[in-house]
Amino acid sequence: MRYFLDTEFNGFGGALISIALVPEEGDQEFYTSLPLPDEIHPWVEQKVVPYLRHVPQGVDYHLTREDAAFHVAKYLEGDSDPVIIADWPEDVAQFCMLLLTGPGEMVNVEGLRFELLRTPGFSSAANSRVPHNALHDARALKVFYCGE
Is 0.85 surpassed by the pTM of this model? Predict the structure, then answer.
């Protein structure tokens, strides 16, 4: 199945702040935020942090990186052919880095593939109900891709 990915992070190359996966089929979305770094990039402080909790109830907040990695693996388990779709390379990089749990160790995900879209004229944030919220931006990417 295809999953639409978006992440928020602390400036270029910065720490992961939140991550979302929205499936092409069904309504079982994945979203979590991680603890904020001690120093937050000013743009992130203004545009991302205020919207971290604009998601449905029942979401696990502030998981450790390792816990978030295991939650992602649990979310994807049972899918023998998961395809992660993103519109920005750093989203893929942040996702992949999250999967690492230590030197030479990663969570158990099988058959994972990635598709990086070039989307001229499309901005997930501009088309999102809550811009710069990973879950809402991933939903906007799904709508763009699927034409819903």
Answer: yes
